[in-house]
Amino acid sequence: xxxxxxxxxxxxxxxxxxxxxxxxxxxxxxxxxxxxxxxxxxxxxxxxxxxxxxxxxxxxxxxxxxxxxxxxxxxxxxxxxxxxxxxxxxxxxxxxxxxxxxxxxxxxxxxxxxxxxxxxxxxxxxxxxxxxxxxxxxxxxxxxxxxxxxxxxxxxxxxxxxxxxxxxxx
Length: 170
What we know:
alpha+beta
């Protein structure tokens, strides 16, 4: 075998080995917002009871985008603490929490279609018929958007069955 061919073969095997090592190595993305798979809460909260990863639920409706809340402006609803960007959005929420709280407790809407409680990502969202929906990742969001109305209907049927169960039980 020619030296050039051996070198290419060695480099290919090395690259493949390194690629497999990278894929097999777990990556710690942190736990700033812990998704508690043992929680039976109907609201997706972190270890401190914060809903929506600290994002302001009202801002989706008023600003049309995810907006981080501030711990100076909080309100409790259904046992969860929500953060808000301002006193104005906090006050709007306290007047009408059902209007602004995310559907399915802030869990992934597409997950609810399949009777699963998956972490909802505040950056993967859509307001449909005046209700805020979140999804766990881009693939779930894409699939959910293919039949939003149908998926909302399926998730609404499934939600009462999974609402008070821990995600790890599903």
